[in-house]
Amino acid sequence: MAEKINQQVHPFAQVNKQPRSDEESGTVTSDQALKRKKRIKLAIYVAAFAVFQTIVILVFALTVMRVKTPKIRLGTDVTFQIFKTGTQASPSFDLSFTTQVGVKNSNFGSYKFDSTIATFMYEGVTVGQVTIPKGKAGLRSTKKVTVTVNVNSNALQSTTNLGSELGAGVLTLNSQAKLSGKVELMFVMKKKKSAEMNCTMTIEVKMVDRANQPVYPSVPADRQFRGSDENIEDSGPLLPDHVLRRKKRIKLAIYISAFVVFEIMIILVFALVVMKARTLKVMLGTNVTFQNFETGTQARPSFDLSFTAQVQVKNTNFGPYKFDSTNATFMYQGVTVGQVTIPKHTAGMRSTKKVTVTVNVNSNALPSTTKLGSELGAGVLTLNSHAKFKEKVVFVFLMKKKKSAEMNCTMTVDSSTKAVKSMIC
């Protein structure tokens, strides 16, 4: 049978072919440049993880550790104990009512404020004052302080619009107060924060006809407080201070625990994805060049082949895989027909190392009982290849983990066309 030396053989379409450009670039690029690229990749992954952690900490700092200004508002539930008003011709008023001042703290820490004075005014003139005692608004809660307010028109001048307002059946009062205190975060960090109250309350005089009557004042469109939104109304019986403090500490502990659990989940994902050592994949490449191709007949079966192929070590780990030299064995029906040494190399992280080898196989060791004759008569030759790699995957240049990889491939050659018909690994 006529033979052709240095014959290039191409596999059929069903075998996935590796791009030639990858092979050429892999040949041209030096080992030192490849190592540098892999280190750059690893540095990018580590930097990405560090940036992600920084973002998480930044979000924590901007949400949990950020100090927000508390809000102080006057409640909308008002109970009048005294309600005296004059007429349009002789305008005056003398009121005494009970209401709630709500200090809403939206921080993840308590807000301790000093006592202050709330001033009630009519057209800029002070008509009454009330003292708001010092207190403490727990984390993400509203402190409600009940106060009794006494206001009258004694300090008003005759030039005010009080008469016309009372003639229209309304009375408008403004209230101002400024709280000074500190927000305490994580029981350690303290930051000064002040809160101001500027509320306008319009009372319908006709609605109040006797003392001790609860009144819901009508509020103009430009009001500066919202009782229902700020949750100032009394929602139940007051709890002792030590119970409230315990509840707030439990809340804070829950938030901190949630953050710690979230961080643990991130580290766990990092460990399971980046730091997990995966088994490598070793396979025989599909591009085969035959230097020698000699086969016998069905009556006198034999073969003597010499070809060049690539052994591909695919490393999907986030670290290089350094393997020692090993032998790849080629067999026909379980009988060794050839061997080749695969030299030691390093497969970079998340890349494929391609090692070119020259293989010589022949049928000298085959017994006569094999099915070689029937196979050659059918125009095919089936060879099996096996190799085992043992070495370590290196993570972040420090941690090493042993991993073994095996190659088990079946190559079917068409003896008539001297081409690889199929490659299964």
Helix content, binned percent: 10-25%
H and E string:
EHHEEEEEEEEHEEEHHEEEEEEEEHEEE
Q: What class do helices, strands and sheet pairing give?
A: alpha+beta
Strand share of the residues?
Answer: over 45%
Number of domains: 2
From the spread of the alpha carbons, the general shape counts as: rod-shaped
Largest sheet: 7 strands, antiparallel
- What number is the mean pLDDT? 79
Total E-strand runs? 23
Q: How large, in whole angstroms, is the Cα Rg?
A: 43 Å
CATH topology of the largest domain: Immunoglobulin-like
- Give the quaternary arrangement of the chains: single chain
Organism: Quercus suber (Cork oak)
Pfam family, one: LEA_2
Transmembrane segments: 42-64, 252-275
InterPro entries: Lea14-like_2 (IPR055301), LEA_2 (IPR004864)
Plain-language structure description:
With 425 residues, this protein is α+β, with helices and mostly antiparallel strands. The protein folds into 2 domains: 189 residues, Sandwich (Immunoglobulin-like); 163 residues, Sandwich (Immunoglobulin-like). 21% of the residues lie in helices and 46% in strands. Strands 16, 17, 18, 19, 21, 22 and 23 form a 7-stranded antiparallel β-sheet that branches. Strands 5, 6, 7, 8, 10 and 11 form a 6-stranded antiparallel β-sheet that branches. Helix 2 runs antiparallel to helix 5. The chain is rod-shaped, with a radius of gyration of 43 Å. The protein starts with 6 loop residues before the first strand and ends with a strand.
